[in-house]
What does this fold into?
Amino acid sequence: MKLLPVVGDDMGSLLINRLTWAVPVVLVILVFNFLLTRMAPGDPMTAIIGEYPAPAAYVEQLRISLGLDQPIWRQLLIYLWNLLQGDLGYSFANRQAVLPLILNKSVNTLLLMAPGLVMASIMGIVIGRLSLLLKGKFMDSTLTAISLFGFSVPVFWFGQILIIVFAVKLQWLPAQGMLPLRPAGPIFFEFLSHWALPGLTVTIFYAAIVARVAKASLKEAVTGDYIVTALAKGSSKRRVFWRHVLPNGLIPIVSVIGYNFGLVLTGAILVESVFAWPGLGNLFMSSIISRDYPTLQGIFILAAVSVVVANIVTDILYGVIDPRVRHGSYGK
It folds into this structure.
């Protein structure tokens, strides 16, 4: 992967460079998402009022109060101005402000996705390491097959299989929700039992992605001449791995881990839909059905900022891992 040359020779210049590019990117995404939501078919008034007939004067008054009577360009300017003041709008489907609604749901999504992504990252690197130690053996082929399975199987299908086996047949774990309506034990263990199936679904899928990249990257790093030189000097294989192989193979691994964390909402939509997890994914789907423009735009903002922040953090980690990145010479 080639990065753009960075002005300056320290981490501060690297950070400033990435933030400079992040601002116009986020702005373009905001405008595009605003227009995209307005182009979706359907009238939000139908979702608000329902199918029952209502007086035309009441419908028009409600449309004016929500600002839906204004031209698109004026709605966009009003939206951007309110956004600068920290106002994401009012969710007419959920009858509350968008910002606290999204923050509340995002906590639930993080509780589901963050542990799974961390475990997946660790498992992926461990599998890549084992592939080096067990190269050519039966266990290496087994790990490759498991990684291929986890990467190829659709998340929603795998989640339903887990529900059928562990919730319906064996009745070991609950199938849906984040907590029971009436907890019978400590909240932590109740939460853990509900997290097990969706968490396993997230972990298996993302671990397979990291493992495939880690395996290829570490196998490429171990073939370098510097590895032969280090071994010839008497360094142990373990020391060579931690001092030379892993640091030189981390760039692609960090890239895919950052990619996974940046696109956490994408995975949450499918997983939360299958397991009825009360997070951003479920809120996103319900907002589409109800044509809840402010909530959709708020979720798009959060998703865009998450992707941009994940990429900035990934680039900073590039600079920490490889000095050539922060000195602007990587890829020249």
Observations:
- Residues 1-8 have pLDDT under 50 and may be disordered.
- The chain is about 75% helix and 0% strand.
- Strands lie at 90-91, 96-97.
- The two ends are 11 Å apart (CA to CA).
